[in-house]
């Protein structure tokens, strides 16, 4: 039976997993800076998992950047007189 690849599995899913992969990506250079693997993966499956994790990191970075920029636009700039009075 072909096992599914899962991003951010639940605790129950983790109990039944046969392996895991943690991947860290430097978004500005799109460089993989850390890979941690536990369990056994056929090389094709490992490459598929790395590709899935890389795309998830890129998407997450985009979403977090957009949210931070949106919040900055909604936050009025503080004036120096406000900062001095505190």
Task: Fill in the keyword field for this structure.
alpha+beta; 86 residues; two-stranded antiparallel ribbon; 3 helices
What does this structure look like?
With 86 residues, this protein is an alpha+beta fold. The protein has one domain. 2% of the residues are buried. It is elongated and about 60 Å long. It contains three helices and two strands, in the order H-E-E-H-H. Helices cover 49% and strands 20% of the residues. It has helices at 11-15, 43-74, 80-84; strands at residues 19-26, 31-39. It has a two-stranded antiparallel ribbon with strand order 1-2. A hairpin with a 4-residue loop joins strand 1 and strand 2 (31-39).
Which helices and strands appear, and what pairs or packs with what?
Layout: H1 11-15, E1 19-26, E2 31-39, H2 43-74, H3 80-84
Antiparallel strand pairs: 1-2
Summary?
This protein has 86 residues and is an alpha+beta fold.
Number of helices: 3
Give a count of the beta strands, DSSP E runs of length 2 or more.
2
| Class by alpha and beta content | alpha+beta
Q: Number of folding domains?
A: 1
Strand percentage: 15-25%
Order of SSEs: HEEHH
Helical fraction equals 40-55%
- Distance between the terminal alpha carbons, to the nearest Å? 64 Å
Shape call = elongated
Strand order of the largest sheet: 1-2
Unreliable stretches covering 5 or more consecutive residues:
none
* Largest sheet descriptor: 2 strands, antiparallel
Overall residue-averaged pLDDT value? 87
Radius of gyration: 20 Å
